[in-house]
Specification:
The chain is an alpha+beta fold. The chain folds into three domains: 48 residues, no CATH class; 195 residues, D-Maltodextrin-Binding Protein, domain 2, CATH 3.40.190; 212 residues, Dipeptide-binding Protein, Domain 3 (Dipeptide-binding Protein, domain 3, Roll). Helix content is 31%, strand content 22%. It is built from 18 helices and 20 strands. Strands 2, 9, 10, 11, 12, 13, 14, 15, 16, 17 and 18 form an eleven-stranded mixed β-sheet that branches. It has a five-stranded antiparallel β-sheet with strand order 1-5-6-8-7, with helices on one face. The protein has a two-stranded antiparallel sheet with strand order 3-4. A hairpin with a 3-residue loop joins strand 5 and strand 6. Helix 2 packs across helix 3, helix 3 runs antiparallel to helix 12 and helix 17 runs antiparallel to helix 18. The longest helix has 18 residues. The radius of gyration is 24 Å and the shape is globular.
């Protein structure tokens, strides 16, 4: 016992020296962050310089690139066969779930603050997990496709209707592409290789491409951030372009469920349509269950309590501190999605504040962060440091590329060179969630230690999103997932005008490199371009990575037959409620 206390004290003193905090300041800030006494000791031990942790691949490696131009016909879904292995499906029943994030509306083309869109909508193709663990495009609203260097010809599924009774056809498909390319779209990064769309016949759509597009199929799937979904043209014509998706009665997709009730900030209800084009193993339309009520519960601990008590049957985003309890609860099934992680990253406004025109100050932040320590403290065994925006297994990932590693001395030097020899005060805007708040407190200690004095600005998620759009902030942190192709990860974040380009970065060199990366079916050409993109990210220092955690959700064991894919949704399309 005495030896253990001596080791803790030694590590704590090292941490205090590294962060340049007094022992009293250290413990006061840690308690303010909401850490338990044990966690504070771990934090103290982690804040010193430590050997870099080994980065492991994220589950099964994603595909290394898009297939060469080819014609593809319908095949059996690998994910469907996985669901069949869970037992014999049963019809009926209701599911109640709880999610961390609220919904802003139901227009996928103009709203990326949503989940479970895949139960309301369909995309041209489904980016599906195969039995061997790989992923590829499978038919959805398109049953065949032919890609050439300058066109993509899609044969559309016949007999499909939207929830408002209107038909799915090539005219509607063209309307959706035009709208996705339009000035109000938040999904342009996924369709910007498309020059125009043409109706060839009622069920054939031709996409004219600006160049070959190695990421086209994944960008036409649900894996494109749940944004490239097809909506009802008839509904838009009826309610108006800006009113679409603002209420259940103003929303119509082709998915297996429709929205019937929505109380923003509280819950929404989806109901089985009974007429979905995809059938279950019993020959009847999916899904097997009748309704899904999703409650908005931002607090991670409350979501877990509600699951364990049986008030809800499924939750998203199980936090590291709850993993062990979920594993030990015999009524629960803890499920890791090997195709997804939650990544924690940061950026700066390019239009406001001290970082906007000061790359040395941005670099100082990047050097000040001890990523190994953050991952160790907050990850609770499921966290890893993150040095690049691509993770192992992705086309273009290369751990020999330049990166920012923890160097407090270098950070202090850059703060002075940036024009702040006495340091400066900045604001860090975060979403008011437990893990984001704890991370902000850890980052504050690290940044305070190099002369960047941080005030934390904690906002509710929708208010945070609204603030981001104004660019009236200094620095923000955010969580994000991974996507199926490096283009959708990198272009969606760094390209001029991209919706997730929170910094409003506009860099022609970056844009040209991103265009080069997507404009080929040759993996070697694409990988080289993405290496250069990542070097440019390093040079501009407008964005940075911190750490990532493995992605877990959990359900009560009466929920059967879930199938995870590349996205972070619950995989309920093939699920049922066990009796």
């Amino acid at each position: 016992m005495e030896r253990d206390m001596h080791m803790v004290d030694r590590d704590l003193r090292q941490a205090i020296r590294s962060a340049q905090l007094t022992r009293r300041q250290f413990f006061r800030r840690a308690f303010a962050a909401g850490f338990s006494g044990g966690a504070i000791i771990v934090l103290a031990a982690a804040c010193g310089t430590s050997a870099p942790a080994t980065s492991a691949p994220v589950g099964s490696a994603p595909p290394t690139g898009a297939a060469a131009p080819a014609t593809t016909k319908a095949t059996t879904s690998g994910s469907a066969s996985q669901a069949q292995n869970a037992g014999s499906p049963q019809r009926g029943g209701a599911i109640i779930g709880a999610q961390q994030g609220d919904w802003k509306g139901y227009d996928p083309h103009r709203n990326n603050a949503a989940a479970q869109y895949s139960l309301i909508y369909d995309s041209f193709v489904n980016w599906a997990v195969q039995p061997d663990g790989s992923m590829k495009a499978e038919p959805a609203l398109a049953t065949e496709w032919q890609l050439t260097s300058d066109t993509a010809t899609l044969t559309l599924r016949q007999g499909v209707k939207f929830h408002d009774g209107s038909d799915w056809n090539a005219e509607v498909a063209k309307f959706n592409i035009d709208r996705l390319l339009g000035p109000k779209s938040t999904a342009t990064a996924y369709v910007n290789t498309i020059k125009s769309a043409e109706v060839v016949d009622p069920y054939t759509l031709k996409l004219n491409l600006k160049s070959p597009s190695g990421a086209l199929l994944s960008n036409l799937s649900q894996a494109a951030d749940n944004q490239v979904f097809m909506i009802s043209k008839a509904m838009v014509d009826k309610v108006g372009d800006d009113k679409y998706g603002t209420a259940p009665e103003k929303t119509a997709g082709t998915g297996p469920m429709k929205v019937v009730e929505w109380v923003q900030g509280s819950y929404h209800v989806l109901q089985r349509t009974g007429s979905y084009w995809q059938q279950g193993t019993d020959g009847q339309p999916l899904p097997y269950f009748d309704s899904l009520k999703v409650r908005f519960i931002a607090d991670d601990s409350v979501r877990m309590v509600e699951l364990r008590s049986g008030n809800v049957q499924i939750i998203d985003s199980v936090q590291p501190k709850d993993i062990q309890a979920a594993r030990q609860d015999t009524a629960l099934e803890l499920v890791e999605n090997p195709y997804q992680v939650t990544a924690f990253q940061f950026t700066f406004s390019t239009k406001h504040g001290p970082f906007a025109d000061n790359p040395k100050l941005r670099q100082a932040v990047a050097y000040a962060l001890n990523r190994e320590a953050v991952a160790k403290v907050l990850g609770a065994g499921i966290g890893l440091p993150m040095y690049y925006f691509l993770t192992p297994g992705y086309l273009g990932y290369d751990d020999t590329l330049p990166r920012y590693s923890f160097d407090a001395g270098k950070a202090k030097q850059l703060v002075a060179e940036a024009g702040y020899p006495n340091g400066l005060d900045v604001s860090l805007s975060i979403i008011n969630r437990v893990l984001d708040t704890q991370q902000a407190q850890v980052l504050k200690q690290m940044l305070d230690g190099v002369g960047i004095r941080v005030t934390i600005d904690a906002l509710e998620r929708l208010a945070w999103l609204d603030k981001i759009k104004t660019l009236q902030y200094d620095m923000v942190t955010y969580q994000t997932g991974v996507r199926p192709d490096p283009d959708s990860i990198l272009a969606g974040r760094f390209e001029t005008g991209a919706d997730k380009n929170y910094a409003a970065l506009s860099d022609k060199t970056m844009d040209d490199l991103l265009a080069k990366g997507r404009a080929s079916y040759d993996d070697n050409v694409r990988a080289t371009a993405y290496h250069e993109v990542q070097k440019r990210i390093y040079d501009t220092a407008a964005y940075g990575t911190i750490w990532y955690k493995k992605y877990f959700d959990a359900n009560r064991k009466e929920i059967k037959g879930r199938t995870h894919g590349q996205t972070g949704d619950w995989g309920l399309a093939t699920a049922w409620v066990g009796k």
